[in-house]
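User: Fold this; tokens only.

Assistant: Input:
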Amino acid sequence: MTMSEAARETYCDWTVTGMDCGSCATKIRDAVARLPGVSGVEVGIMTERLRLTLDETQTKRDKIEKTVRALGYQIAPRAAGAKKDFVLPGAHDGHDDDHAAHEGHDHAGHDHGPKAAAAKRDDSGHGSPGHVHDDPADRGKRWYQTAKGKLVIFTALLLGAAWIIEYLAPEIGKWAFVAACLIGVAPVAQRAFSALRMGQPFTIESLMTIAAIGALFINAAEEAALVVFLFAVGEVLEGVAAGKARDGIRALANLVPKTAQLVTGDTTREVPAASLTIGQTVLVRPGDRIPADGEILDGTSGVDESPVTGESVPKTRGPGDAVFAGAINTEAALRVKVTKGAEDNTIARIIRLVEEAEEARAPTERFIDRFSRWYMPAIVAVAALVVVVPPLAFGQPWDTWVYRGLALLLIGCPCALVISVPASIASAMSTGARRGLLMKGGAVIEAAAKVEVVTFDKTGTLTHGRPQVTDVVPFGATTEAELLAVAAGVETGSSHPLAIAILNKAKDAGVSALPSQDAKALMGKGVVATVGGAVAYVSSPRYAMEHGGLDGIGLRQATIFEEDGKTAVAVFREKNPLGLIAMRDEPRADAKDAVRQLTAMGVTSVILTGDNPRTAAAIAGSLGLKFEADMLPEDKLAYIREIGTQGSVMMIGDGINDAPALKQASVGVAMGSGTDVALETADAAILRDRVTDIPATIRLSRAAMANIRQNVTIALGLKAVFLVTSVFGLTGLWIAILADTGATVLVTLNALRLLRFNPEREA
């Protein structure tokens, strides 16, 4: 493709309503993909989404919309989505600090500039397409008020009228059923013809039309009319079930209020929340939901974050604290400065993540997709053989075998099979999102279900990531104030937890940081900067020893600190030791319980940390898990690559130095307080910063995969039974269509059970 051709291409996004079974995606995708200038077509069933890349010099957008409407669906342009997959409160945006890792404490670099998240996209088409489709205006109505429900009622009236006519006038009763069948099947035949014109002969509409018309030719008019009615009933049931599966996703959007109180000078006025822009100030009254991600300017109140994180206890927030859209202000009025636009707030990003789930499809789903592509033509071929072989080869009656062949066509529709995976994935995603467990799609869920080893970064993951200075030990003539002034100067501008601990200690001691410049990371070893006109270092004791910044006595003191589970850093100038600063970062309260749960689930836990072995051993010993210490980012990457050859590995991290390991692992999980880079690189995230959410994520993934296996068994089992009974004449047309629709409904309802699953409850 030339650059000029690429420049002409536009990324387009629509909402398509009416997709009520897994096979609907293929109908739309195949029809649209045939148009010139169209590429990268993606159709999401549960998210009702059509996305593609379009060269508008070859095909206009309205042509795409006309094509979709011709297939019986409604389509409308989609509002812009979030710019990133998900970035959570507490994550840093746009920092360009070069401060990198102290070897002793995972001191990560801080290049947190925005990074475009690459969406993982796969085709999402499936088997045999098409049904009677929902009108968007029908949402929220009772089934009998919808267009689909009215069709069922009309078809039932036709069938009832035909029975009455047959009872009153048997000689014309047959023709009454013929009329009922033809009137009921007419809209179905119209859609079948539309699909046929677009090169799609194997649709459920075409099978229904053939079966109904064929039944009329073999004098089974009454049964043909009944099949048309049951088909319409099945459509209603499938639409209701699919709607319930989507409700969890729709509920997320309702977390953000529709309006906001915009503060302009001394006045306040109500405006649409979607119109808020960065930098504006909003008033959030007690009991109101916060309308946008922002920072509190004025007021202190309890903020209930449970609608998004599932954390039930309100947290006290005051000036300078970050809050996010959808949280509830419980106590006092707050003035909040908007920091993210409506399309990029926390809820929008979570919704985007859930929507992306259908694109990162599970291997199981991709297999079923391939299977369904040859399955439907094969069923048609078998049905044709059932119709012609017995009469021609064995002299059997045509009527009997035509009837059985038509029944075989109806039972052969793979709708239940192809909806089995996306329905379960959508339900699991919705359940996880309500509890702050976010996963980027079916492929992640399937990988998480197979995890055998979980590797943890230490700082900010197993620990709070908020260490406090416990000891300040100056050397020689250096005073404690001088030591803190130099260390604070080196760390000025860094947002790393250990840097913040040093800066906070200096502030509490009333010590001003010396002016600094040219801060530079010593990856995995520390930070160097020009402080007070001379070069100064804050580094690991080992690096300090190698560069004349620590003597034997100082090293012994550092060792004592490390044996107590503290992290020690050396502060020195060229060949001039200034002192040691020791800090401790306590493990999270639930870390030990999380490790216990993982062990009970048969999962091995390992700490991967840049800390020295003594400090790592102190933390690992208290939690009861294995550890690997003195690890640079490349060491973590190599370790995960090595154990990944033996089984599925999950990596938990929160810093930029964890990003390579998160990407290498089978499943990378970012803690909610982590950096943008970690969150965008990861396959999943936990919002609540609770370590017990790691086993909960694995538990939810295993439940989802078990649900998928149940669905596939239901779908294939019913197909197998009724295919056999249809061939042997034990079941007829109306039983065949009822079994097909019933299987689809059963599979969807089984998937909906995941909406009530509690992944925090141990089995």
